[in-house]
Amino acid sequence: MMIRSAASLSILGCAIVALFGVGLSAQAADDDRLERIQGPVAAQVVKVRDGDTVEVEAFVWPQQTVHIAVRLRGVDAPELHGKCEAEKAAAQVAKQRLADLVGDGAVQLTDISGDKYFGRVLADIGLSEGESFNAQLLKEGLVERYGGGKRRDWCDQTSEAAPMPLPRKRS
């Protein structure tokens, strides 16, 4: 009788551990889904902050939007308040080009994840068809690849990177 009880307890214990383990696996999968959303998520750009950040109204549920800053994933633009006039001018060019790409503001966000700053996300941003604005700005040499670490010194004229184009004068 005691052997049966011990065996029953052992089976029950294994069942609890198995169910708990399944629960942990499901939780881990949920955590992964919460860390990154593939999208697309429809959004309306309400402001272009600079060459690598926009503010959007993202349409997350029917009749529900979220106002959030979106940093373009994997790129770094020169700073508007940079260290030198060349960086500031290059920043204006990158910001204006991003505004041109945004057009009427209707965009899609994909590959969305959290950022190091709360209240901002990282994402690829583009139109429903075609390449992302991230890739287009890289191709045009207006931004640099970025994945953390040391940023480009936009004021260093000896850099091997292609020189930034001068801002276009408006007529």
Concise account of the structure shown:
The chain folds into two domains: 35 residues; 108 residues, OB fold (Dihydrolipoamide Acetyltransferase, E2P). It is 35% helix and 29% strand.
Features of this protein?
29% strand; five-stranded mixed β-barrel; 3 helices; 171 residues; disordered C terminus
What's the CATH class of the largest domain, please? Answer: Mainly Beta
Oligomer: single chain
Number of distinct helices? 3
Number of domains: 2
Reading the helices and strands in chain order gives HEEEEEHEEHE
Task: Calculate Rg over CA atoms.
Answer: 24 Å
Give a written overview of the molecule.
The chain is of the alpha+beta class and 171 residues long. 35% of the residues lie in helices and 29% in strands. The chain has 3 helices and 8 strands; from the N terminus they run αβββββαββαβ. The strands form 2 sheets. Strands 2-3-4-7-6 form a 5-stranded mixed beta barrel. A two-stranded antiparallel ribbon has the order 5-8. The relative contact order is 0.16. The N terminus and C terminus are likely disordered.
